[in-house]
Amino acid sequence: MFSALKKLAAGNNKNEANGKTPAGGQQAMHASLQKKFAKGVHYNMKIIIRGDRNVGKSCLFHRLQGKAFIENYDPTQEIQASFFFVASIQWSYKATDDIVKVEVWDVVDKGKKKKPLEGLKLNTLTPASLAEEPALDAEFLDVYKGTHGVIIMLDITKQWTFDYVKRELPKIPTTIPVMVLANHRDMGHHRCVSEDDVKFFIESLNRKTDAQIRFGESSMRNSFGLKLLHKFFNLPFLALQRDSLLKQLETNLQEMSLTNEELDLYLETDDASYDKYMIINVVCFFRIICMVSFC
């Protein structure tokens, strides 16, 4: 796994040096974000985008980075990212001064495996026996590890994309806030997945946690729904912030307990006894008098 990541990272650096767009959707971080993050990051937040093929995941991935709508459909072969498989976007929570690094992953369920490296010639191995290089997909990586929010998309004009949502939504950990995003709202005249059907299914899951499953509609063509998503990002951020504060509180309680133990130990020493303290001071005083007398 790590060798595959290293190869892709090396390829990314090489392409950037040559001024080329890296393969697999990897892109360099925008200069404004580099300048912002150089001051220090308070929170790292990971958002993943899931959904069946051709529902608009890559379009959303680009829209969140402030890029234009992609008219032609080009299937994503592996998880897309900017610097090392991640796209950082401009986002902040209300008027807070906290610097939040938002990493967005365009997740592919099953990517196309790559062919063996060219130029590899081993007489003892047949082409069929050469191991293929794994694709960065949901089968290769645990995409929910370290994830703070999930956007799972469907196409309102394709019923099977809703079937995907019904199959995958229960698999998402209940601690992660989710946005079910019904895309292609601009194609409403071809709609076959109703808003009520999606909401009814979400309610049927009966999630009893603070990490709710929300519903929204979007159109990547005209940017409808992007403002809703930016507000949705508040939920994973607040959950991340709460976890951080709870850890700080736990550390604070531990430090208080250690300080109380230190105080108890100090009270058992000679320094905590007034009588012993005075004796030590008197002895020191006479030593000084003697030294002065001898001088």
From TrEMBL:
SUPFAM superfamilies: P-loop containing nucleoside triphosphate hydrolases
GO terms, molecular function: GTP binding; GTPase activity
This protein's name: Rab-like protein 6
Taxonomy of the source species: Eukaryota, Metazoa, Ecdysozoa, Arthropoda, Crustacea
